[in-house]
Each structure stands twice: as C-alpha cells, then as structure tokens.
Amino acid sequence: AQTVTQSQPEMSVQEAETVTLSCTYDTSESDYYLFWYKQPPSRQMILVIRQEAYKQQNATENRFSVNFQKAAKSFSLKISDSQLGDAAMYFCAYRDISSGSARQLTFGSGTQLTVLP
Amino acid sequence: DTGVSQNPRHKITKRGQNVTFRCDPISEHNRLYWYRQTLGQGPEFLTYFQNEAQLEKSRLLSDRFSAERPKGSFSTLEIQRTEQGDSAMYLCASSSWTDRDTIYFGEGSWLTVV
After folding, report:
1. pLDDT attached to residue B101
2. Which 8-state DSSP code applies to residue A9?
3. Cα(A35)–Cα(A107) distance, rounded to whole angstroms?
4. Is residue B22 within 8 Å of B34, Cβ to Cβ?
5. Contacts of A2 in chain B (CB under 8 A)
6. Are A2 and A95 in contact (CB under 8 A)?
7. Chain A environment of B92 (Cβ under 8 Å)
8. B2 CA to chain A: closest CA distance, Å?
9. Dist. CA B30–CA B45, nearest whole Å
10. CB within 8 A of B10, min separation 6: which ones?
C-alpha cells in the first residue's frame, strides 16, 4: 500500500519570504501523480499543484513550485513571496493511476503553515 | 457550474440515529469519491463510483455505512446507528477524464455525534 509522510506538522514563514514543505512517499509503482492541496480554515480542499511522475521537469504554478526527486521518493513544495492568504493546512497526496485502480488520493497528515506579517 | 456541492454542511445527531449526506458533483464528472477527515489528519478514502457503479470500498466503510449514486449523478452517504467515533468531516469529490482527471473537492459535511 502506498503511504505519504509529512514530517513537519507546523511551519511558519515571514510574509514575502520563501518556505519549503517536505513530503516523502512510498510506492512500488513507476507511474503515478503527486499533488499538493491547501485546506484553509473554511475546510475546502483546494488543488495547488500537480506533478506527473513520468515528467522530469518540476511543476510550477505562479509562486508555487515543487522539487520532485523520483528516485528518493521526495516531493517538496516551495512557496515564494509568501502571502497572508497562503496560511493553511497543506496536504501532500499520491494518486495511483495503474489500470483497474480506483485512482483515489492517499494523503499525508498535513503541515500547518502560518504566515507572519 | 459552481463546483462540488454537499448538504447538509453541518449535522449534529444523537448516538444511534441515522444520518444521510448528499453530494452533487460537478456536472458531467463521471467519477465520484467519498473521504472522511478527522481533526488534524488528512482525508481517508471511503468509496469510489464510476458513473452509477460503486467500484471500490475502503475497509473503513463498515456495514453501517452505505453509499449510492443512482443514475450516475448525485450521491448519498448514509450512516446507520451512528457512534461517537463517526464524528468527522465527510468530503465528496469528483473528477472527469476530460479534465485531466483532476479531483475537485466539495466543502465537506461536518458530523457531530453526541
């Protein structure tokens, strides 16, 4: 079974600074997707960024970028120019895309990010 | 289309009562998922529908839980004889292969069993 580990329960960053959230995962599959989701106090899960395992290039979405190290099974999220609105719980998630799978997401336990003004 | 819609948003029930949650996915999304999330934890997969067929159920889905998706549109999640351990947020999500199979979540339904 796949597992996702987020070893940082809490992180804080000064507004306008950069922060990196860590994530490792375990799988025997060669093709899969990885995601970072953001869950603000409103509790709605919002997709931040996705990475296909077959792509060597790291995904970027505006101020958000990832460092995907497939061999190390590591998938970190870098937030640049942090804003107060970035404060939320961030979840790393893995998705099995093998034939016949339900393709459900497996989530880590989350990292609570605080942005300091 | 405004996204995945869930009702009710909050439900307080007495132990032993039955509750039902409804999820309306994004229109034309053929895949629908239910997850459960407790405080301080990530969501855990419960069950998955492709159109009207329930194709997978997690072992977390005990016999007291049942989910349906008649006609492949909205879905319901019913919990019978609720227990205090059922208190959690129940998240619905949907996806479609036409949208890179990206999973979109609803705002969740909070259940408190007293």
Report:
1. 78
2. S
3. 9
4. no
5. none
6. no
7. none
8. 13
9. 17
10. B109, B110, B112
